[in-house]
Write a structure and sequence with these properties.
It is a single chain. It contains 6 helices and 13 strands. By secondary structure, the chain is of the alpha+beta class. It is elongated, with a radius of gyration of 19 Å. The protein folds into 2 domains: about 90 residues, Pseudouridine synthase (2-Layer Sandwich), CATH 3.30.2350; about 130 residues, 2-Layer Sandwich (Pseudouridine synthase).
Length: about 230
Amino acid sequence: MDGLLLIDKPKGWTSFDAVNYVRSVAAKVVGKKPRNVKVGHIGTLDPAATGLLVLCVGKYTKKVPDLIRHDKTYEAEITFGYTSNTGDAEGELVAYGAPGDTPEESAVIATLAKFVGDIEQVPPAFSALKIGGKRAYELARAGKEVKLEPRKIHIYSIDLVSYEWPVLKVTCKVGSGTYIRTLAEDIGSELGVGAYLSGLRRTEIDKWCVDDAVDPKSISIDNITGKLLA
């Protein structure tokens, strides 16, 4: 059983939850133990995020290193006025500074434009990147200092969908390695009001769209083969 499987990851599921579920179903089809069935994914989605997760099944797992570099498109909700130690709603929220004038929409649009193109971004401490053999988030959760170097990324576009203080909604197309949590924080910092990522949905990875994806809970031994893409 080989191919790609487009999943619309529900909120609350980890990316591994989706991989593990598909692996268990595929194992029943091919008559193997789950640990002997290869399933990988292209680009992690945090549990609080939803949307497109492309799974590679069987021989297609060999394609993961190449496919993971593809561009991605997200629908992001950013809430101003607070910061979070994780960069998103899962962390500890802290009010940012003293209340003041809220940014006008024109100022928000001008700020978004500053982040389009080649920029440097510091990955979040609560990320899966490895430091000395350990995941950064493991060190951060243990209360240890996490120092990650800035990396060059590319942001193709950030389009405003709506803005009503304190909530900003945007659609952004980004290159590989971009952290939307960090982008949200950096936008809030640039505007001087603080921000965290309060919602995220991935809609596209390269040519694949979430509109063509399936709910993982709908996958069964009777239909999984028919849902695989060559």
